[in-house]
Structure formats: C-alpha cells, structure tokens
From TrEMBL:
Source taxonomy: Bacteria, Bacillati, Bacillota, Bacilli, Bacillales
Record keywords, A-Z: DNA-binding, Transcription, Transcription regulation
Protein name per UniProt: FCD domain-containing protein
Region of interest: Disordered: 219-243
PANTHER family referenced in this protein's UniProt entry, alphabetically: TRANSCRIPTIONAL REGULATOR, GNTR FAMILY, UXU OPERON TRANSCRIPTIONAL REGULATOR
HTH gntR-type domain ranges (all copies): 5-73
Biased composition (Basic and acidic residues): 219-230
Length: 243
C-alpha cells in the first residue's frame, strides 16, 4: 500500500501545479501564508514548510518583509538524479548525527534544568500519543531533538545543528514514510527522555545511538535499493554512454 503523503507535501504539489499551469506566472506575489492556509484547509506550518522547500529549489523567492514571489518555472531534473543525490546526502547526514547526537543526549542528562527535562519528556509523550492516533507529529519530532541539543548547554554544538536545520527537516520528512519507523522513533524518544529525566548519561547515549543506528540502517537500505535505478553514479556525476 502506498505511503500517505504528508500534509505539506500535498501543499507543495498544489503550489507547484499552480505555477506550472501559468496561474501564478514568474514575478507573481503569493497570497499571505494565512490566506493560503485557509484556501487549502491546512495549518499555516504546512504551508510554511512547502514554501520553504520551493524557496530552496529556487522556484519561489522569499523576501523578508516584502512577500514571496514566483521566481521561475520549475525545472524537471533527469529522472532519479536529484532523488539519488538527496538519498546520498541523507545517509551522510545520519552518519554525522550518529556521531554528535548521542553525546548531546548524555550532556543533557547531566546538565539539563528541571524545566528542560520536563519539556523533553512532554514532547516525547506528545509524539507517542500522536503516533498511536496516526496524527502528524512532525513538529514534536523536530522539537525533541532541538530541546535535547539546548539542554546540553553547549552553544557550539547547538549552532552546528542550527546550520544544518534544513537537512535535518528533510531527513525526518523521508524517515516518516518508512513502514514501522514512526512507532520505533516514538518509543526511542520516550526511552531517551526517561534516561535524561533519570540523569543517566550512559543510558541516554546508548539509546540515542540505537535510535540513529536504526535510521542509518534504513537510509543505507533505501540508498542501495535505489542506486541501480539512478542515472548518476556514487560520485554524483552523470555517466556517459559510449558512442
């Protein structure tokens, strides 16, 4: 059974189709996020995420204080090419997270304030409830890892993660579609939160490593399963056909 699209992905496709059809030509200013939210019948956060991605793709131009404009007609990349590069990036990102985030969890168990511990636990519990009900938990997933980073009280590591926040968002966008991963992630989050609340750095580190190891394994499988389908080799260079 195909995976259900996330809300912001549906919004992304509707905005892109509106641009491609010529209803919103290059230079057109988009309505405010709140108006689009009402028209599409979705939350403002879903519209904001769709607009952010279209901005990264240079389809929309976001001008602070002025508005969001159509920059150009969407280009269609070679089939599979962009997806291949995205998968490779996500795999490398997960490897980097596996190195950094377990230590952040351990530091949080040592240094988090009581208020920070409470926020981490509440977010983990909210995610667990939403997963059980089949509800969108994207916000809670992002907040959970952000709260742990801040609870480490290491500003250098916090800023490092902030610099790759777009990649982290894209990573979670992909992993949420894997069968069974949402339930596993919710369970890990709750256990990690409990270890931090119990001031157990070793346990928090081990659980976070296991959580990210699961993700790394899935990204490797996803990457390898689709590698043969891509016209781009592992170095990201278009293969030349012999004449």
């Amino acid at each position: 059974m195909p995976n259900k699209k996330l809300t912001y992905e549906t919004v992304y496709e509707r905005i892109k189709q509106t641009i491609e059809s010529g209803v919103w030509p290059p230079g057109h200013r988009l309505p405010p996020l709140e108006q689009l939210s009402a028209e599409f019948g979705v939350g403002v956060s879903s519209v904001r995420e769709a607009v952010r991605i279209l901005g990264k793709q240079h389809i929309l131009r976001i001008e602070q204080g002025r508005g969001t404009y159509v920059q150009d007609l969407p280009e269609r990349p070679p089939s599979g090419g962009l997806d291949f590069l995205e998968r490779a990036t996500m795999l490398q990102l997960t490897e980097a997270r596996w190195i950094v985030e377990p230590e952040l969890a351990a530091l949080a168990a040592e240094k988090a304030t009581e208020e920070q511990v409470a926020a981490i636990m509440q977010t983990a519990e909210a995610m667990k409830r939403k997963v059980a009900k089949g509800q969108d938990f994207f916000k809670e997933d992002l907040l959970f890892h952000e709260y742990i980073a801040r609870a480490s009280h290491n500003e250098v590591l916090v800023h490092m993660l902030e610099r790759i926040s777009d990649l982290l968002t894209d990573s979670r966008r992909r992993s949420m579609k894997w069968p069974g991963m949402n339930e596993k992630a919710a369970s890990y989050h709750y256990l990690i939160a409990a270890a931090i609340a119990q001031r157990n750095p070793s346990q928090a580190r081990t659980l976070m490593k296991s959580h990210l190891e699961d993700m790394r394994t899935e990204f490797e499988r996803d990457f390898n399963d689709n590698r043969a389908k891509s016209p781009i080799d592992g170095a990201g260079v278009q293969e030349e056909k012999p004449e």
